[in-house]
Amino acid sequence: MPTDSFTHTGAIELAEGETPAIRFNRIVKRFGDHTVLDGLDFTVRKGDRVTLIGPSGSGKTTILRLVMTLEESQDGYILIDDKPLTHIEKDGKRVALKDKHRSQMRKRIGMVFQQFNLFPN
After folding, report:
1. Among 9, 109, 112, 121, which has the highest number of CB atoms less than 10 A from its own CB?
2. What's the pTM value of the predicted model, to 2 decimals?
3. What's the N-to-C CA distance of the chain in angstroms?
4. Mean pLDDT in each 10-residue stretch from start to end of the chain (121 residues)?
């Protein structure tokens, strides 16, 4: 595995019945031959504030773009409030969800740009 790829496997403990806000499950993301995320397992509890820190090219923006569905992973699953974001596992295979489902999930996610002046208006 390249040293500049982001891999996090530290599981957090959830209380019984607690639903995580976001769960990354075995996420793999490649750009050509470059693996940026390799088996990412990462959970965010509701109410938690998370900071992604790392060198340029380590996958911070890619993680956010995956949650916003601006990028798609090659493997794994992302769950928002325990609902699949883009794919489910069916009969042992990774299956893409319909556009209608993806659209409904996108309505629950917001993004604030780092630079306020990205848009001239």
Report:
1. 109
2. 0.78
3. 43
4. 44 73 95 94 91 89 92 96 94 94 87 67 61
